[in-house]
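STRUCTURE REQUEST FORM
Protein name: CHAT domain-containing protein
Source organism: Dokdonia pacifica
Requested output: structure tokens
Priority: standard
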Amino acid sequence: MNSRVYPYILFMIAFLCNGITTHSQSNQDRLDRAISEFELMYKTGAMSKQDSLLTSFQNIEKQTQNAPLQNTKATVYIARILSNKRRFNEAETLIKKAKKNYETASLNDLKIKHTIAYYEMYLDIQVSKKYDTEKIKTYVTTYKNKPGNDPFIEALSHEYMGRIHQDWREYEKSILSLTKAIELFSNLGYKNQVSIAYSIMGATYDLTEDFEMAAKYYEKSLQIGDQLQEPNLDVLASTSYNLALMFGDRLGNNQKGLFYAQEAVKYDSKANEKNPYLALDYNQVATSYMKIGDYTKAQIYGEKALEHAKLYLSQQPSRIAESLRTLGKVYAKIGRKEEAISLGKEAIDIVIKVVPENHHWVCAGYLHLANTYKDLGMLDKAEAYFLKTERVAQAINRDLFLIDVYNNLPELYFETNQLEKVPPLLEKSQEVLQDRFKDADYFHRRNDMNTIIYYTAVNDTQNATQALKSIKEKIPQKYTYPDIELKIEAYELLLKSSPTSKEYEHFLKTIIDHKNRFPNQFNKIIYGNTIKELLAKIISKIYDNIQLEDSEDLKSIFFRYLEINKNSVLLEGIQGTRFKKVAGIPEELLYTEAQLLDSLQRNNKRIYNTKQSKYKDSDKIQKLYNRQLMFEHTYDSLQKAIQNTYPKLKNLKYLSATKDFNGFTNKYLQEEEAIIMYFIDTHTWYRFTITKNKNYIEQFSTSKSLKEDINQLVTSISKQKFNSALSQKMWDQLLPKLPDEITKLTFITDDILSLLPFEVLQQKETFLIENYAISYAGSLQLLEEQINLNNKGKGWLGFAPKYDKNPLPNNAKEVKEIERITNGKSYLGEEATKENFITLSKEYNILHLATHTEVDQNNPLYNKMLFSQKQGDSLLTASEIYGLNLKANLAVLSSCNTGFGKLEKGEGVMSMSRAFTYAGVSSTLMTLWKVPDQETATITTYFYNNLESGMTKDKALQEAKRLYLSTTTDQDLKQPYYWAGFILSGDTSPIVNSSYMWWYIIGGIILLGVLYTLSRKRTEANE
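Status: completed
Returned output:
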């Protein structure tokens, strides 16, 4: 070989060998750097680096095919990243490849072997969706405390075993494993994993129902997780959700529960707006809002949850069922009966198809239906489902369901007077509470309250008083449990033999304060429904006191308790602007408030219309929901700011809400008038009669039969088969004996009485209307407010649209004739548009609407009047009317069903008439059912003729009906169905025709002039 070539060859061999060593060393350096970055990523929580690290490890894996250990390590780290990204199938394939490489190359690296073994076990479970007990045991036995283990994998193993023990309900073992995992992760500095382990530990304690420890660990998890460089949003969201469940459902701290539920929404939304878990978060927010009495937001979140679940959780029936139950709960609370029951049954049907009856999903469904039926007053069905829940809960050992049953059944038995069934339930509740729920304060307080109610019901005053004293010491602070706190104060009164007037006044103020916590009027209405039974107990107590001491002071208090829940929200709405001006609230702030309310109303209508659309746009609905929530929160904040900045407003509301009846009697009541007020409880009803010179209270114990009779009578009218005998019976039951001078009656009704026209009551075949002018009022304070409205509209304005479908043949004729009588202005046919009404209605004194009306029993804000479809929107909703500022003295709503609607316990009928009252109209003439078109035209024409002659409104209506009855020859048309549906509500004062006003003024001036001239002449003659 050439001597010059040989040294060159040696040089090249040396160079290549060095190159291989250098390349190998370069790969090792890259691998070490990547592993260091991987560990740092876990320590700081900077998980966004996963993708770049994945690429690095994949490149290293490709370049180390001839370096088995480097290649195996790179493959393992790729699998770990894919596992963390929940790409379990790909990860499992790579772990199997790594294991094969490790064994083929006979490698000896215990850390990597340990890692492969852990992920082999872990990924097998994730892919197969089931535990292989033997594999788990083999792994634990082989690697437990084994020298050479990877410390991170050892910590991860303890954490995962904590999860497994938790699933197997081996809670003590779970806590031990998690404690070890937290110790190891902490020592290694892996903050992200510490946060996760704390969250799992919280869940374990939660399952053992040690809520104090659960809260401690959950909150530690959030504290650490929130401080990470890149917080783990999934962990933060799930931990927040669990805290929301615990504080809201277990501990009764609803404000804290709401806070954490909103945090869960925040984290899951930040991760992904289409995150499936948002449905669960929305459910919990809805539940939290429901528990604090904000049903407006509860409904929005409940509907959002169901929409979201149907879109993104369609393959998880239990989650769909959960959303159905949540929305069903909201609907039950707000009185949407059929929908609430339907959703509850649908939820049960879904889960019963996929799990056996003895399963917690089914148990949750039974409990939901039990509570739904209880809220709706269907107590037999409620009891049946509570007992089903108890049976399943005992079979699956779920005490959380049991405690709910044991707290609810006593309340049901109190209502049905089955007191003998209560003591065993109180004992069972106490046993479960002491054994499993020592820290669940709200559950304890509910049981304490049931104990107080039971002792009071059986007249064991001593034990009731002792229990009351005990519970007061245990309530942490005001408004912690507002529902229980209100009951405590009520029972303090009930357990005293003769409470003072001051004590009764104090409880009245408490009710007002509790109601004023809700800026939203809808929530106040629902609150009013919930407190009626409690008010009934106090009213009964006051009545008993009056029997012992017939004092005017006690009668005044009795009256105020009757009034406090009667149309109080409607009254507040009418008074609102005036009170706010008196309180000194600036015009610009009132304008902002009005704009917000308008935005709320408009957006709410968009939601309604979008949901009613044939082609539902789920994304659009969700955006509209979010917009509505923004408006709701802004409005609530504004109301709180107003209350805090202008305390005089609160005082004005309180003074108005606590006025007695003497002021009205002295100022407004005439000798020939009587006001008859009713209050109907479950078992008892009251009648309070007020005349100019006398007032008296009566109590009756026939509520159930009274309601049945009223239902039958109203049904007989609607079916045109009038039950005259029942009408005469109702006269004897409902009407007091009245002095002979009384010719005018004002009825302030309650409950089902709001659906009855008293005009049809008979005595010896003479209808009440034949002898008395009759009107109605929501409450005495509301009536006084309507009398004082001092509306200054001018003239008469009428509308009679033409309908292609369901025409009203006589509405145009009716309106034209009344236009002639009143010298007013009418819009007929195509000109009778919604736009014209909204534009013109604000200036007129009398509004007359001869239209079709549609009643929405589920959502009274969407009761609607139908105008001409000539242009744009033809539907005028109650919600839109609420937003108007009308100056009318009278609205005649001759369209059908304008006095009919959803019946609320406190606020009465949520009708179109109510909407006009809220908008500022002093009085309304409305219909309780669909009065036939021809009879409507006849009676309203008679009515206007009487008004023009100067009669009061109630007298004008009385004479119109009397004339109809006396001139109608067809006996069938004399049935109350044809004439009794028209009733008058509000101020009955006569209407002075503005077209004649100037003649009166001129005549008055001339008369004064004549008198002055005569006086001067007489003076001169005397001189």
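Reviewer notes: The radius of gyration is 37 Å. Residues 1-21, 994-1001 have pLDDT under 50 and may be disordered.
Form closed.
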